[in-house]
Predict the structure.
Amino acid sequence: MGFLTSYKQLEKLCGERLKDNRCISAYIDQMKKTTRGASLVPGWDADLKKLKHYRWIRNQLAHEPGCTEKNMCRPEDTRWLNTFRNRLLNYRDPLSLYRKKSLEKKRSRSIVPLLILCILLAVILTVLVWDTWIA
């Protein structure tokens, strides 16, 4: 499978996942808007850079005379696109990982007040039981 075929498959999947006909460009835009992505997801910046680079290569192939897969692409470019597509299929891509980590952070923040409340209730009950027992 060549670069363009792999790119088109990734393009289609990005469009379906984001429900946006700008496909990979929409994915890139979403990554740019996610300001804390690089701090929460390892490899965020490298993935963003690769996606932008491969979009540029695709545009060169589509619009520039003399640009061909043979003189623009290496086998590892196609492999990277296929690997990223598989990551997207398995929800291991940067945006999916960011959503997962964001939810984990929100859940952990919502648990702290509940733990404090439980500790306070335990202390109050201990005091009430102690007072009742002594009296």
